[in-house]
Amino acid sequence: MAKEDFAAFPVIALIMRICGGTGGFSFAKAWGFYADSEYAAGKFKGFSHPYMQVVMIFLGEALVGLVGLFDKKTKHDKFHVKHILRCIVPAALDAAAQTFSNLGIGGELISVQQIFRLTTILFATPLCAIFSDFRDSFAINMKAKIQSLIIMTCAFVVVGVASISFTPVVQPDCGSTAKSMSYVIFSGFLSGLYTISTRMYKSANMHPLTQQSMEGVVGMVLYMLVLPILNHFQLEFPGEWFYRHTHTWYITLNQILFLTAVFTVTLGGYYCSKFTSNLSFQVIEAARPLLVTVVTMIVKFEKPEVKFTLVSLSAQCIIIYATIIHFTEPTTKAKQISEQADALVVGSADTLEINTKTKRKTTKRENSDILE
């Protein structure tokens, strides 16, 4: 049975997306709560490798290309060097966005980090209005889009103030909540630029999964070039990262689960774009912080605190509502006219049927009177 004929497949794709994303960020947060692990002979400290984990994200994204190899229906161009060149700018922006997102995980609640990842829409929407390729999509229902952005901005401000004022659990990273939050917001800006940069892919007739995989490979190569510089300035230590994975089993297990989650969320995103509406996809993205909140409370990364929890959950619901407003496409005039015409036809048919029945009844009465 083809995927297109399987009625439940869109639902499965959405589940893959929300569960994969929730799992990925939960596993990323888990490293900070583990006991200090050995990073050199007889030396122990907490796991903190936000830069190396970006390489792992690109590896998880690169693996989805294997799925594309089994898709024999979709025709695409043969591989050319120009395809790699098209990936450089998007991969660089994605790498920068993922880096700042990872830097923002340690110093704040993961649910708050997930909420502020949604700030991407605040930056992507104005950028769409600037670039001609996306201007038409911005012009559709523009008033509702502006209203939704205002609502979202207010919700983000409320969550930010609440998080800084009374974060209920001390986070494993020494960075402040405000600093971590600023990292994630800047990541949202870079993600907005990344969204615009992917227009380069339009001219390439390639399978989307192959394109995503190629971007992942290019991202890994770019990051490998940057790692020696980060090591020189003592910002990242790849040697320590490798040592931990060869000497601590739970670090390795967490890494495998993390890669699986990245693979799942990436593949789920592809199938969502293919089998579900953009509105459904965006609502699932906006709802992810709710699931993250529940999961992290269950595993005790977060503790329920009446004031903060109520503010956070309320803001998340408001953001979901604003997302629905933002991505709901209005009914076109042509469709409205068609629906009105159908209604008139149905109404005329009903009227004709009623008149016919009335006429028959009248005729019967007249005939009855004549017989009498």
Automatic annotation (TrEMBL):
Tagged with keyword Lipid metabolism: no
Membrane-traversing stretches: 7-31, 51-71, 146-166, 178-196, 217-235, 247-271
Keywords carried by this UniProt record: Membrane, Transmembrane, Transmembrane helix
Keyword Membrane included in the entry's annotation: yes
Entry superkingdom: Eukaryota
Coiled-coil blocks: none
Name recorded for this polypeptide: Transmembrane domain-containing protein
Source organism of this protein record: Hexamita inflata
